[in-house]
Amino acid sequence: MYKKYLTFALISILAFVPQFLPDDESRFDEWSKSLLCPVCQGETIYDSPSEYADDMRSILQEQINNNMTDNDIYEFWVTRYGEKIITNPIERNYEVVLIPLFLVLIFIYVFLRKLYVKK
Amino acid sequence: MIYNLGILISWLSFSVLIYLFFTKSKYRVHLLVRINLFLQIFLFCLLEIGLFLNDFSVSYIANYSAVSTPPLYKFASLWGSLDGSILLWNLCLSIFMFLYLKYYKIENSNLDIKIFSFITIFFVGYTVFSSSPFAGCIELAIVGCNKSTLIPFQNTLISDLGRGPNPLLQNHPLMAIHPPMLYIGYVGMTLPFVAATSRLFKRDQSDDWIDVAERTTYVPWLFLTIGITLGAAWSYEVLGWGGYWAWDPVENVSFIPWLLATAFLHSSKIQKSSNTLLNWNYILIGLMFLSTIFGTFVTRSGVLISVHAFSNGNIGTYLLFGLTIFSLLFIFIGSKNIEYFSGSKKITNWFGKSGFFVLNNIILFSSALIVFIGTIFPLFYETIYDRQITIGRAYYDILVGPMLLVLLGLMIFSIKLSVRNINLNSWFNENSNLLNLSLVIAIFFLINLNNSYFLVVTVAASVILIILTIKNMVKRIRITDANKTYWTGQIAHLGIAVFALGIVLNVTQSYSTEKEINSFQEFEFNNTSFFVYDSIEENKPEKTIIKLPISNEITTKYTSLNIFRNSSQQAISSPAVFRSLANDIYITVKFIDEDSYKLIVRNNYGILIMWIGLFISSISFIPRLKKRV
């Protein structure tokens, strides 16, 4: 029986520990992972070894050093390259996640209703 | 010569297929399928011969091969661009048609061969009417060929030098195996489609459609798994960005049929054991096949741009046309069977085998749906809102990630699934030590390595899955009555668990730095010192390689920059990889001056573990080789 308590205790620890851990991803990493390198094929400037990405990284580094707000950084890149440069459009466009989730829910509903629970 | 012969033989093969479609005689069916196979093999060899003889009167050869191309890549140039890869597609179709005829033919009807030849006619028709790798060159470009003709016996022009394959495609030997594996996987999805549609066309035919469809799905599934793995490995070894999967459209469209086929391999078992999910299985079979064509359409028509895209004007419309016809055929045959499908039984035990398998299907299909939406989202946005957006990693991390985690959880239960409901209480009592152990490991990871919560739970789930599966194998492997399918599944699951562990390590532990360094200097990384020598320039006929030897006291590896002639593309940088089980030190170079360099040094964790996992999944077919008793 004690094993169950042990499991319960361990799961609780697992659930609560993250609250106390700092988020260690630097702003620079976060941003460089979400900016597309426009001359490369589908790579972010974090991944790309190209010169172009290199230059973009140094501009980004400067912006972060100058404590520019996320909004300003966003505006800076989007006005120059268009929305296409942001590989993580989710934060500003919730529908990008909501539409697929909605469709998945419809699928599950139809699947369970029509295809699966047959009278 | 090759141009004329190629076009004539393509026509011949096309006519043979038309004849095959209309013939009623059994004997002729056997003969014509073999003739078509022979012609397709002949076409394949013919184009290879052309590539090796540098016959630049053929437009395809002039544009995608060069005198200086090394033999291995000349060989691989056959599938280095669109028209050639359709030729390979046709060859695979013809081989599969032959194998189908030999092993899975319906006994009293030719309908299956009719459907099969219909699909083959469609693809061979593309090389006959639209665009062929044998087209003769009638207008030269500065290098290569500008305009070509499909009409035989025209005066052709011969360029002096070929343009050569895309540099990315001639930089690693994996290029010679990765595409054929994928094509076999794609084309193989035709087998279950033909098997199911033809057997369901007339309901007096036998009920073995699910059986045949299931058996014929293993082959494409296996090749798709291998093909995707090799593609990831290639991306990692060649592209120099330190990653293996970018959620690039072409990667996505190979992943969608894989997810659907995996779903089908599970749900077919439920149908076989309890006669449920009939309609669902039929839908999956259709979507598996249609998704391969849709994938080819999306990536080859130029509507989406990616690393792999070699677009061509005609193919888009042509494939869309085919997609429509095959969908209609599929819907038509499905609608003929509505009554039969509605006889599908209801599932009663949600916590038993069928319940878990249904959950598995929901998750795999939803993942496929999400990947599909993510792939076409940019297109959708552009048409509807006139906005260009990019769907990057974050989308898939948020939506697909949790699904795959639930799947890991389901696999744990799959070890001991029975038709009856699982008694969760007794399951817990039996495995509580393990559960606690994996929780401790997870907490350790969380605190020490400061990871995201989601990834930690993945570690816990994969550890428990690996331990339980191996324990179970050791305990039960000698029991002879154990079912082959069961062990195939278990091995595949074990591989996925190992793979998941590798991914978690990779995503959370990897880091990189940049070092500026001169020749004959040393640098320190990950507690190892690396010594950088002087760069060496090596001239090959097709490219110049600038190599930089780097030594870690044990071995010396080269990181290099490949500059291809006949190509306007950027130089490709190849990494030096110092590999160990836990991590790879992955170094790429940028040359600043004569003897000063900028190195990007990455510490990539878990790569070898991932490959091992995928390898284990790929050999999961071994138990099936055992003869039936």
Q: How would you describe the overall organization of this protein?
A:
The complex is a heterodimer of chains A (119) and B (629). Chain A has helices at 2-20, 27-32, 51-65, 70-81, 95-116. With 119 residues, chain A is mainly α. Chain A folds into two domains: 26-87, Cytochrome C biogenesis protein (Helicase, Ruva Protein, domain 3, Orthogonal Bundle), CATH 1.10.8; 91-119. The two termini of chain A are 42 Å apart. With 629 residues, chain B is an alpha+beta fold. Chain B folds into three domains: 1-164; 171-413, no CATH class; 511-608, no CATH class. Chain B has helices spanning 2-22, 26-52, 59-64, 71-76, 82-103, 111-130, 178-188, 190-201, 209-238, 249-274, 278-300, 313-336, 338-342, 353-385, 393-414, 424-449, 453-476, 484-509, 607-618, 622-625, and strands at 136-140, 145-149, 511-518, 521-525, 528-532, 536-539, 543-551, 556-564, 572-574, 576-579, 583-591, 596-605. In chain B, strands 4, 5, 6, 7, 8 and 9 form a six-stranded antiparallel sheet that branches. A four-stranded antiparallel sheet of chain B has the order 3-12-11-10. In chain B, α5 (82-103) packs antiparallel against α6 and α16 crosses α17. At the A-B interface, α1 and α5 of A face α11, α14, α15, α16 and α17 of B.
